[in-house]
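Subgroup meeting minutes
Present: P.N., E.W., G.H.
Scribe: E.W.

1. P.N. recapped why we're keeping a running log of single-chain structure predictions: easier to compare across weeks, and new members can see raw inputs and outputs side by side.
2. G.H. added today's entry (191 aa).
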Amino acid sequence: MRCATGMTILATGALLGTLAGGELSAQSPKPSRQSADAAPSPVCPLFSVAEIREITGQAAYDHPWEVGPGEGVGGGSACVYEGPVTSSRMDSPPPIGFTLISGKDWTQRRRTLKLSEGCKREPVQGVGDDAFFESCPGKSAKRRVDPLYVKVGSSDLMITMDIKPPATEASSRPTVVAMARAAAAKLRNRP
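Output recorded in log:
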């Protein structure tokens, strides 16, 4: 199976450890990368593939894959939406990754960490209780949108998306923000 290497790193926590013919429903994500005994990810059910297509404006999204609770960044769970396994990298949409961390004040803790020189936090208004991009300058073209951290009640989300040319960081951020707004609204409405 083809995998989004950068998203795999993000979903498993390594990145931040150092710093549906028929429509597939997110209720039964496929394929899954979690172990057989792991609990299902609570973040994949936030969106159906149809919703991801609608928000992004890209019909090529095909399925999510997940990392179960405790296996993602900050002990959370993660879900990555991508294109068909059979499509070429050139034809597939940019993978979008969500990490959901419950009850650990992850966003607030990120806010208190000292950033590397040149890095900054950029507030995002109207998303959850608190939201910011954490951006660092790079010497080469970026391959991924800077992570967006979002606090929603007792839950925290981290959202990122690969950048596929001709898209840029600036042209990709509005999609990440739209995904964050939709996810925050869904989290607020959970029983």
